[in-house]
């Protein structure tokens, strides 16, 4: 029995084959079989300007960001030190002074 890859979008283990594609029944994501064979496990995360980010980098917020469930706002120009890259939609895990631990999307930051 062959083992099928997990869904790259939601990490579901219930993927199945459909012709030349893999399909995830949970999030309906489809991807070609060739893409899973030729890609390596290393994911590249880029900032708003296209610069590659790595864990431990310092970034600057380029847009006012409302903190969900709070009246706080992360202002433009806020410097965030020692980021950590994680999987998911919000791919930066960090701690911001005055706000605390939170996750950011890489499209709203630039490398400092």
From TrEMBL:
- The residue ranges of the Protein YjdM C-terminal domain are 46-112
Please name the InterPro entries in this protein's record: YjdM, YjdM_C, YjdM_N
Q: Name one Pfam family in it.
A: Zn_Ribbon_YjdM
Q: Which residues form the Protein YjdM N-terminal domain?
A: 3-32
Q: Which NCBIfam families does the protein's record reference?
A: phnA
Q: In which family does this protein belong, per the annotation?
A: Belongs to the YjdM family.
| Protein name in UniProt | Protein YjdM
Organism of provenance: Sulfurirhabdus autotrophica
């Amino acid at each position: 029995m062959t083992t099928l890859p997990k869904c790259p979008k939601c990490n579901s283990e219930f993927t199945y084959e459909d012709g030349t594609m893999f399909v995830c029944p949970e999030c309906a994501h489809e991807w070609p079989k060739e893409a899973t064979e030729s890609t390596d496990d290393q994911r590249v995360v880029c900032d708003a300007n296209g610069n590659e980010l790595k864990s431990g980098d310092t970034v600057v917020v380029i847009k006012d960001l409302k903190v969900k469930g709070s009246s706080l706002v992360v202002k433009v120009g806020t410097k965030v030190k020692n980021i950590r890259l994680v999987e998911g939609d919000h791919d930066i895990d960090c701690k911001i002074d005055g706000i605390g631990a939170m996750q950011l999307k890489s499209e709203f930051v630039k490398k400092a």
